[in-house]
Amino acid sequence: MFDRLKLPFITLSSLLLVGWIGLKIFTYFTYATPPQFALKGIEHNGSYARTVECTIEANNDYKVRDVIVKVDDKQVFNQTVKAKNFQAPFTLDTTTLTDGQHILEVTAIDSSYNHNATQKKYTFIIDNMPLHAAFALNEYVVDQGKTLHMKIQANKQLAKATVQLFGHSYSFYPESEHATTYECFIPVDCEERVGEAMVTTDIEDAVQNKCALSNKVRIRHFEFKKQRGFNINE
To answer: Is the pTM higher than 0.85?
Structure first.
Protein backbone atom coordinates (compact mmCIF):
# COMPACT_ATOMS: atom_id res chain seq x y z
CA MET A 1 0.00 0.00 0.00
CA PHE A 2 2.90 2.37 0.76
CA ASP A 3 4.23 1.99 -2.80
CA ARG A 4 0.79 2.59 -4.20
CA LEU A 5 0.50 5.80 -2.22
CA LYS A 6 3.84 7.06 -3.61
CA LEU A 7 2.97 6.33 -7.22
CA PRO A 8 0.76 9.39 -7.91
CA PHE A 9 3.47 11.71 -6.48
CA ILE A 10 6.19 10.13 -8.62
CA THR A 11 4.00 10.32 -11.70
CA LEU A 12 3.19 14.00 -11.06
CA SER A 13 6.87 14.84 -10.56
CA SER A 14 7.76 13.03 -13.76
CA LEU A 15 5.07 14.89 -15.67
CA LEU A 16 6.32 18.21 -14.33
CA LEU A 17 9.88 17.34 -15.26
CA VAL A 18 8.88 16.29 -18.77
CA GLY A 19 6.82 19.47 -19.15
CA TRP A 20 9.72 21.63 -17.98
CA ILE A 21 12.13 19.92 -20.40
CA GLY A 22 9.60 20.28 -23.20
CA LEU A 23 9.22 24.00 -22.49
CA LYS A 24 12.99 24.44 -22.46
CA ILE A 25 13.31 22.69 -25.82
CA PHE A 26 10.41 24.67 -27.29
CA THR A 27 11.92 27.96 -26.09
CA TYR A 28 15.35 26.99 -27.40
CA PHE A 29 14.02 26.50 -30.93
CA THR A 30 11.52 29.38 -31.01
CA TYR A 31 13.12 32.18 -28.99
CA ALA A 32 13.47 35.23 -31.29
CA THR A 33 14.14 38.26 -29.08
CA PRO A 34 17.60 39.80 -29.63
CA PRO A 35 19.66 40.28 -26.46
CA GLN A 36 19.87 43.69 -24.85
CA PHE A 37 22.98 45.21 -23.26
CA ALA A 38 24.54 48.50 -22.24
CA LEU A 39 28.13 49.64 -22.69
CA LYS A 40 29.74 51.71 -19.94
CA GLY A 41 33.06 53.50 -20.33
CA ILE A 42 32.70 54.58 -23.96
CA GLU A 43 30.09 57.06 -25.12
CA HIS A 44 29.12 57.87 -28.68
CA ASN A 45 31.27 60.79 -29.98
CA GLY A 46 33.30 60.83 -26.76
CA SER A 47 37.03 61.55 -26.59
CA TYR A 48 39.49 59.27 -24.79
CA ALA A 49 43.17 58.83 -24.00
CA ARG A 50 45.47 56.22 -22.45
CA THR A 51 43.50 53.19 -21.14
CA VAL A 52 39.72 53.14 -20.80
CA GLU A 53 37.97 50.76 -18.43
CA CYS A 54 34.75 49.47 -20.01
CA THR A 55 31.95 47.12 -18.98
CA ILE A 56 29.20 45.42 -20.94
CA GLU A 57 26.11 44.89 -18.78
CA ALA A 58 23.06 42.77 -19.65
CA ASN A 59 19.76 41.65 -18.15
CA ASN A 60 17.86 39.31 -20.50
CA ASP A 61 15.20 36.60 -20.42
CA TYR A 62 17.44 34.18 -22.30
CA LYS A 63 21.09 33.34 -21.83
CA VAL A 64 23.65 35.32 -23.78
CA ARG A 65 26.39 33.07 -25.07
CA ASP A 66 29.09 35.44 -26.41
CA VAL A 67 29.99 39.11 -26.35
CA ILE A 68 32.45 40.37 -28.96
CA VAL A 69 34.09 43.79 -29.18
CA LYS A 70 35.81 45.13 -32.30
CA VAL A 71 37.57 48.40 -33.00
CA ASP A 72 37.73 49.33 -36.69
CA ASP A 73 36.72 45.71 -37.53
CA LYS A 74 39.60 44.29 -35.46
CA GLN A 75 38.58 42.10 -32.51
CA VAL A 76 39.83 43.40 -29.16
CA PHE A 77 37.65 41.40 -26.74
CA ASN A 78 35.66 38.16 -26.79
CA GLN A 79 34.04 36.45 -23.82
CA THR A 80 31.66 33.50 -23.46
CA VAL A 81 29.28 34.39 -20.63
CA LYS A 82 26.35 31.90 -20.90
CA ALA A 83 24.21 33.99 -18.57
CA LYS A 84 21.07 36.11 -18.63
CA ASN A 85 22.49 38.73 -16.28
CA PHE A 86 26.16 39.56 -16.38
CA GLN A 87 28.89 42.18 -16.38
CA ALA A 88 31.77 41.69 -18.81
CA PRO A 89 34.62 44.14 -18.06
CA PHE A 90 37.42 44.85 -20.53
CA THR A 91 40.19 47.43 -20.94
CA LEU A 92 40.64 49.42 -24.14
CA ASP A 93 44.26 50.50 -24.66
CA THR A 94 43.99 53.61 -26.83
CA THR A 95 47.78 53.97 -27.11
CA THR A 96 47.71 51.22 -29.75
CA LEU A 97 45.39 53.36 -31.89
CA THR A 98 46.12 56.44 -33.96
CA ASP A 99 44.73 59.76 -32.83
CA GLY A 100 41.44 60.58 -34.48
CA GLN A 101 38.06 58.96 -35.03
CA HIS A 102 37.41 55.23 -34.59
CA ILE A 103 34.42 52.90 -34.50
CA LEU A 104 33.82 50.47 -31.64
CA GLU A 105 31.41 47.64 -32.36
CA VAL A 106 29.81 45.43 -29.68
CA THR A 107 27.93 42.24 -30.58
CA ALA A 108 25.96 40.02 -28.18
CA ILE A 109 24.77 36.57 -29.33
CA ASP A 110 22.35 34.46 -27.32
CA SER A 111 22.40 30.68 -26.75
CA SER A 112 19.17 29.85 -28.60
CA TYR A 113 18.91 27.79 -31.78
CA ASN A 114 18.42 31.02 -33.75
CA HIS A 115 21.57 32.65 -32.30
CA ASN A 116 19.76 35.97 -31.97
CA ALA A 117 22.26 38.81 -32.05
CA THR A 118 22.38 42.52 -31.27
CA GLN A 119 25.09 44.80 -32.62
CA LYS A 120 25.78 48.37 -31.53
CA LYS A 121 28.33 50.79 -32.96
CA TYR A 122 29.94 53.74 -31.18
CA THR A 123 31.98 56.44 -32.88
CA PHE A 124 34.69 57.78 -30.58
CA ILE A 125 37.84 59.90 -30.77
CA ILE A 126 41.33 59.05 -29.56
CA ASP A 127 43.49 61.94 -28.37
CA ASN A 128 46.83 60.97 -26.86
CA MET A 129 48.58 64.13 -28.06
CA PRO A 130 50.07 66.23 -25.21
CA LEU A 131 48.38 69.59 -24.76
CA HIS A 132 50.34 72.71 -25.70
CA ALA A 133 49.11 76.29 -25.84
CA ALA A 134 50.49 79.83 -25.81
CA PHE A 135 49.30 83.41 -25.90
CA ALA A 136 49.41 85.01 -29.32
CA LEU A 137 51.28 88.02 -27.82
CA ASN A 138 53.92 88.28 -25.10
CA GLU A 139 52.14 91.27 -23.58
CA TYR A 140 48.75 92.89 -24.02
CA VAL A 141 48.13 96.63 -23.87
CA VAL A 142 44.70 98.23 -23.54
CA ASP A 143 43.40 101.69 -22.74
CA GLN A 144 40.99 102.49 -19.93
CA GLY A 145 37.38 102.12 -21.04
CA LYS A 146 38.29 99.94 -24.03
CA THR A 147 37.98 96.22 -24.76
CA LEU A 148 40.91 93.86 -24.31
CA HIS A 149 41.16 91.31 -27.12
CA MET A 150 43.24 88.27 -26.12
CA LYS A 151 44.14 85.20 -28.16
CA ILE A 152 45.65 81.81 -27.36
CA GLN A 153 46.89 79.26 -29.87
CA ALA A 154 46.66 75.54 -29.07
CA ASN A 155 47.86 72.42 -30.84
CA LYS A 156 44.36 70.90 -30.74
CA GLN A 157 40.75 71.81 -30.11
CA LEU A 158 39.97 72.65 -26.50
CA ALA A 159 37.10 71.73 -24.22
CA LYS A 160 37.40 75.02 -22.34
CA ALA A 161 39.72 77.93 -21.65
CA THR A 162 39.11 80.68 -19.11
CA VAL A 163 41.09 83.73 -18.05
CA GLN A 164 41.03 85.49 -14.67
CA LEU A 165 41.30 89.28 -14.76
CA PHE A 166 39.95 92.14 -12.65
CA GLY A 167 38.46 89.62 -10.25
CA HIS A 168 36.28 88.04 -12.92
CA SER A 169 36.44 84.97 -15.14
CA TYR A 170 36.08 85.19 -18.94
CA SER A 171 35.83 82.38 -21.49
CA PHE A 172 37.75 81.92 -24.74
CA TYR A 173 35.90 80.80 -27.86
CA PRO A 174 37.27 79.38 -31.15
CA GLU A 175 37.71 81.91 -33.94
CA SER A 176 35.79 79.59 -36.27
CA GLU A 177 34.49 76.03 -36.37
CA HIS A 178 37.28 73.47 -35.80
CA ALA A 179 39.79 76.30 -35.17
CA THR A 180 42.62 75.87 -32.66
CA THR A 181 43.00 79.62 -32.11
CA TYR A 182 40.78 80.96 -29.34
CA GLU A 183 39.87 84.54 -28.51
CA CYS A 184 38.40 86.40 -25.59
CA PHE A 185 36.99 89.92 -25.28
CA ILE A 186 37.30 91.56 -21.86
CA PRO A 187 35.73 94.94 -21.05
CA VAL A 188 38.01 97.38 -19.21
CA ASP A 189 36.40 99.86 -16.88
CA CYS A 190 37.04 103.52 -17.67
CA GLU A 191 38.31 103.97 -14.12
CA GLU A 192 40.42 100.81 -14.05
CA ARG A 193 43.74 101.40 -12.30
CA VAL A 194 46.59 102.23 -14.66
CA GLY A 195 49.50 99.83 -14.59
CA GLU A 196 50.30 96.18 -15.07
CA ALA A 197 48.09 93.24 -14.14
CA MET A 198 48.81 89.54 -14.32
CA VAL A 199 46.34 87.22 -15.97
CA THR A 200 46.08 83.47 -15.58
CA THR A 201 44.45 81.24 -18.15
CA ASP A 202 43.29 77.70 -17.37
CA ILE A 203 43.07 75.39 -20.38
CA GLU A 204 41.61 71.89 -20.73
CA ASP A 205 41.24 69.61 -23.75
CA ALA A 206 38.59 66.97 -24.48
CA VAL A 207 40.45 64.22 -22.58
CA GLN A 208 41.02 66.46 -19.53
CA ASN A 209 44.68 67.28 -20.11
CA LYS A 210 45.25 70.64 -18.44
CA CYS A 211 47.72 73.49 -18.56
CA ALA A 212 47.90 77.05 -17.24
CA LEU A 213 49.28 80.18 -18.92
CA SER A 214 50.23 83.53 -17.43
CA ASN A 215 50.72 86.88 -19.13
CA LYS A 216 50.90 90.59 -18.42
CA VAL A 217 48.26 93.13 -19.31
CA ARG A 218 49.21 96.80 -19.25
CA ILE A 219 46.41 99.27 -18.63
CA ARG A 220 47.09 102.69 -20.15
CA HIS A 221 45.57 106.00 -19.13
CA PHE A 222 43.01 107.32 -21.59
CA GLU A 223 42.01 110.99 -21.63
CA PHE A 224 38.25 111.02 -21.98
CA LYS A 225 36.50 114.17 -23.18
CA LYS A 226 35.12 116.14 -20.28
CA GLN A 227 32.27 118.60 -20.08
CA ARG A 228 32.04 121.05 -17.23
CA GLY A 229 28.52 122.29 -16.58
CA PHE A 230 25.50 122.32 -18.86
CA ASN A 231 22.47 124.51 -19.54
CA ILE A 232 18.81 123.51 -19.46
CA ASN A 233 16.41 125.73 -21.34
CA GLU A 234 13.22 126.93 -19.69
So the answer is: no
